[in-house]
Design a protein that fits this description.
There is one protein chain. By secondary structure, the chain is mostly helical. It has one domain (about 1-70). Helix content is about 50%, strand content about 0%. The protein has 4 helices and no strands. Helix 1 packs across helix 2 (about 20-30).
Length: about 80
C-alpha cells in the first residue's frame, strides 16, 4: 500500500482543492509514509497542495485540530506523549 501511496502522492491530483479536508489529511499522511506528522506540518502540506488548485482553500488550524480530534473513521490519532511528572 505504501508503494501505491508514494506513486499516487506524486500525482498533482492526489490532493486537490476539491478534496474534503479529512480525506486530504489522510492522503497527506499516506504521502508522508504514515510517519508521525505535527499538526502545523499537516497544515503546511495541505496549503501547498491546495494552493496549486483552481480554487485555493484556507487551512484553519483550529478547524483542522477540531476535525482530527473528532474523526473516527480514518484511524488518525494523536501520538504526542506527555512528559512524565
Amino acid at each position: 500500500m505504501l508503494l501505491l501511496a508514494g506513486a499516487a502522492a506524486r500525482d498533482p491530483g492526489f490532493v486537490t482543492s476539491d478534496t474534503p479536508l479529512l480525506e486530504a489529511v489522510f492522503r497527506v499522511l499516506l504521502a508522508e509514509k504514515n510517519r508521525p506528522v505535527a499538526l502545523q506540518e499537516i497544515a503546511d502540506l495541505l496549503r501547498q497542495r491546495y494552493a496549486a488548485g483552481e480554487l485555493p482553500r484556507d487551512v484553519n488550524m483550529t478547524v483542522l485540530q477540531r476535525l482530527l480530534e473528532r474523526q473516527t473513521s480514518y484511524g488518525i490519532r494523536n501520538t504526542e506523549v506527555e512528559a512524565p511528572t
